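Hi all, long-time lurker, first post. I run a small reading group and we've been trying to get comfortable going from sequence to structure in the token notation. Rather than ask abstract questions, I figured I'd post a concrete chain and ask someone more experienced to write out its structure so we can walk through it together at our next meeting. Sequence below, copied exactly:
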Amino acid sequence: MKQTHSEADVRKLIRELVRELAPNPETLLLDNPRLVDDLLYNSLTLLELAFTIEDEFHLPPIDRAAAQHIVTARDIEDYVVLQLESIQQGALATAAAS
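-- Answer (accepted) --
Happy to help. Here is the structure in token form:
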């Protein structure tokens, strides 16, 4: 069974993952660092981050349209929180229908 995390825990874990994989982690001291401009992510490190987050939170692969709107660390947090809420709501709806 998947462990559920509070929103604060999810956001904290994402920040830790972003920092661990960031080519320039010092700029995480900024309130909302940009992945490419501040943290110096490139296409390869962005893919690695995406795969890591998908694995950590058991998320489906991110689609191209959603990925194009993710620019900052907070954008990642918001995306993951919404995805987890959507998955949880789907599970609750399925359980209620049973």
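A couple of things your group might point at:
The chain has four helices and no strands.
The mean pLDDT is 90.
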